[in-house]
Amino acid sequence: MIAIEARRPASIDCRQTPICNRGDLRCQSRRRKIAPLVTAAPFDLATQDAVAWLASMAAGSVDLVITDPAYESLEKHRAIGTTTRLKHSKASSNDWFRIFPNARFGELFRELYRVLRDDTHFYLLCDAETMFVAKPQAEEAGFKFWKPLVWDKCTIGMGYHYRARYELILFFEKGKRRLNDLGIADIITVPRIRGGYPAEKPPEVADVLIRQSSTAGDLVVDPFMGSGSVGVAAARLGRRFAGNDVNPQAVKVAAQRLREFGEGHVPADIAPMRDEQPDLLASLVPPKRSEGGVMS
Asked: When comparing pLDDT for 71 and 90, which is higher?
């Protein structure tokens, strides 16, 4: 794991400071001990099979997991034309979504349970069909299931019957940990991203989960990170981030986004130059129209 230089934040007492919000990470009345604040090397990226990557991590070394596998039900939706997430196009490609089969959930959840510290949380983004497969297998691995949260995307997606404008976030716990703010609702309303990385999640969704289930300096992990939205949210909030994706191009995109917050570790064979435009992002630039109206 990457080396971290750290300092401890200044402390304030919300009982004596009227302007202090109880969500402030510096507040002494927070129940969980404040972790060191990150000042260098905030991220560590890899491109491996997700389970193999987790297996290389030490037990009890992770503070929070937020992840969104390319679940098996996507293939069914693609076959009947109700999703474009797996089609070869400028906005998405099968190469970017190697399906993670339901049959592997058991080994995934066992590794996640092993690497998480005691008294931590795990969030799994999925659809309603996958929830019925994932929940019992995560419980069998040792997690306590609390409830599904709802990400309200504000606009409907593709489909035929009651077209979905939401995605589920399954909320699991290892041990017992209090949420940082008990006043947060179970519906997270953030508009979907259009025209970005395939099925890209807005960092603002992960922002809510990270604020609720971690403190500054904690290690947030995403074994299916895609373009690194969870990492961006973690870095903005002063958390360390370890992310993985089987596609090297996805790791390039994530690395470019995360370098805004400092230098981290990226596999040398896929690390882009600082001024390099990743291939996927370049492919999303609309074609230019010539004076004669011809697309170029």
From this structure: 71
Specify the length of the chain in residues. 296
pLDDT value at 216 more than 70: yes
**Angle at the Cα of 39 from the Cα atoms of 36 and 42, rounded to 5 degrees:** 95
Q: Which residues contact 264 (CB under 8 A, 6 or more apart)?
A: 2, 41, 42, 43, 44, 45, 241, 255, 258
- Provide the token pair at 286: 């609309």
In the chain, how many domains are there?
2
Residues contacting 195, CB < 8 A, separation 6+: 91, 284
**Dihedral of the alpha carbons of 223, 226, 232, 234, in degrees to the nearest 10:** -20
Q: Is residue 249 one of the residues assigned to a domain?
A: yes
Q: Which residue segment(s) compose the domain that 16 sits in?
A: 8-37
pLDDT at position 156 is 86
> Are 65 and 51 a contacting pair, CB within 8 Å?
no
Is residue 201 in some structural domain?
yes
Q: 115 and 198 share a domain? A: yes
What is the chain's mean pLDDT, rounded? 78
3-class secondary structure, 283:
helix
Cα–Cα distance between 65 and 198 in angstroms, integer? 21
DSSP 4: -
Q: Output the CA angle 245-168-81, nearest 5 degrees.
A: 75
Report the candidate in 106, 100, 121 with the shortest Cα–Cα distance to residue 245: 100
